Amino acid sequence: MKAGGDRAAVEHLRELARRRTVREEERRYLVDGPILVASALRSDALVHGVYVEVGRHEAIVDEASAAGVRVHVLPPGAIARFKATDVVTPQGIVAVTAMPDTRVSDAVDAAESGVVLVLCGLSDPGNAGTMLRMAEASGVSGVLFCDGSVDPFAPKCVRASAGSIFHVLVVSGGVPVQVLEAMGGRGVQRLGTDARRGKPYDEVDLTGSFALVLGNESHGLPPELADHLDGWVHVPMAGDVESLNVAMAASVICFDAARQRRGVR
What we know:
There is one protein chain. 37% of the residues lie in helices and 20% in strands. By secondary structure, it is an alpha/beta fold. The N terminus is likely disordered.
């Protein structure tokens, strides 16, 4: 590699991939692999630069250049050798993309006219990315990652979203109690999720706007949020199963909300 230049660039990519504080300070995140890089280029996301190993992914390089995105050519194997991403076998191309300029108030606004997921303490980036993918597919208006939740722009979450992170309103921040109070003040129905508590999802009217509030994979929603909810909903289960994966439960409820909406059109 060229002394200083290329190596410094790859080391910066590694910092973006591994440190949330760097991502938040720079308001940028890493997109890894040809499919996601191409998806970012074809979306409204602001791509600051594409980093590609020489001789690879020429069609995407051409697309980036045509879009006016700067392309940085790296020596063969540089991304893997200097561990610029968190994957074991990187595919030789990454992009640096700007985080969207979204605020908690945007999620509150979206909840007034649609469905918004409010995540409180969600910790697994794979689950988070799956929820983003599901949100786009089911017509959810936005996903709010409250304080204490996983970073939606962590590389594993971005990959698990399969590109949906570029198409769904994603907001990071906000104290859960304050977020729910703000939504309640705007007349948004706030539904907490629990393995057994409240009504079965198919007995709840989901045709209006609402916020679906989901908690930690192991511990669920914090008890202090109960007074800031308008009701509870659960997915009935057979057998001895104690609970569903949080992303699976959210999917069942959100797709039923989409089904109910189709029925009232």
